Amino acid sequence: MEVLQAQMEELRVQLETLRIGETHRGQSKDVSLVAGIKEWTGESKGRSVYEFLTQIETLAKVSGWTSHDKAFIVKAKLQGLALQFLNGREELGRDGCSYEVLRQALIERFSDKLPDQYYYTRLQDAVQGKNESAEEFSDRCRKMCQRTIRKVNDEGTQRIINEEAERRLLAAYVHGLRGIVGQQVQFQMPSTMEQAVRLAVTVENVEKHKQLTEGVKKVFTARSDVECFRCGKRGHYARDCRQETPSMTSGRRSWRDQSSRRRDPPSRDLLLTRGGRGRVGSGRQSFRGPARPWGPPEDTLSSGIQCFHCNEFGHRRRDCPKFSRAAQHPNGQGSTSRSPASNQQ
Q1: CA distance 102 to 100
Q2: Residues 174 and 186 sit within 8 Å (Cβ to Cβ)
Q3: Where are the alpha helices (DSSP H) in the chain?
Q4: Pick from 117, 156, 122, 113: which is nearest to 142 by CA?
Q5: What tens-digit pLDDT sequence spans the chain (345 residues)?
Q6: Cα–chain-centroid distance for residue 32?
Q7: C-alpha dihedral sign at 90, 97, 63, 29
Q8: Where on the phi/psi map is residue 80: left (φ > 0), alpha (ψ -120 to 50), or beta?
Q9: What pTM, to 2 d.p., does this model score?
């Protein structure tokens, strides 16, 4: 680990020595864009080796970097598996290693080992995802198509290969679009990939706006078809109805009558009829509720219940109309009259 850290420190020092100036060719050199290059680990989940090297080559054209400068920048940006591979190859870690040699070694080690036919088949079977937009689907198809293009040295041959790949990409993209968007694009028959993507995005936006408008109309239509169970009118539910029914009005009136009746104090006769449950003459009167008229229940007439006060059947002493609390002992512990059972004893 110490050796690796020393090598990394040396590369950083060498990278810092690069400065803006005039090279031997008379071209200005700028290293300020090096900070915008992200470190590359060589893992399969991250960027591919082609994307990493393409970024460096593009910035090299803008900044005027030489082949020697690009090699130093590549070595300074390697991390993880890529750095381990570089340290395992002594010829690549030397200062005199050119960028072309380093580039070829990285491509052979970290490039995809799958054949071009694999990506060609995947491109033909590509289908737009359920939540994937037309632009995202075009980017995915283009990325797969790039891996099907063969690289040759002749510029004319390479141009023909790229044109064939572009037509293959257009056919796969139009065939993979789903729903109404795919039908409209296939009907228009675009000649280029840019026209197909522009048409697909336009139809997709129109469909989204149409679905949003129809959704709002369905909500208002559903409310207009609803019938209230309280008033019988349409356009609202019974829980939102503001019309009062006769039952609600009578119920509110009966509740008010009961509440006002409960607030009235009971009379002396009512208290005596209820068995003297309140204290008359004191500052406060306690009662449990309005008095009800006395009357023996019909089922008690033949039940054999006998009153201990008047010796009549059908009621008890506490419900006897001839019994008065005033006849009780002054201390309130009992009545002066005795029941027949006590007289017999």
Answers
A1: 5
A2: yes
A3: 2-16, 49-63, 67-76, 81-88, 90-93, 99-110, 116-124, 134-146, 155-176, 179-188, 193-225, 246-263, 268-273, 340-344
A4: 122
A5: 677 777 777 777 666 655 434 444 445 577 778 888 888 888 877 788 888 888 888 888 888 888 888 888 998 899 888 888 888 888 888 888 889 999 889 988 888 777 778 888 889 899 999 889 999 999 999 988 988 888 888 888 999 999 999 999 999 999 999 999 999 999 999 999 999 999 999 999 998 888 887 765 555 555 667 788 788 887 777 888 877 766 555 555 555 555 555 555 555 555 555 554 444 444 454 445 555 555 555 554 545 788 888 888 888 888 888 887 655 555 544 444 444 444 443
A6: 43
A7: positive
A8: left
A9: 0.43
Structural domain boundaries in the chain? 2-110, 116-218
CATH class label, 116-218: mainly alpha
Tokens 């937009």 belong to 133
Phi, psi of 21 (to 5 degrees): -175, -170
State which amino acid sits at residue 41. T
Q: Are 99 and 74 in contact (CB under 8 A)?
A: yes
Half-sphere exposure of 24 (CA within 13 A, CB side): 1
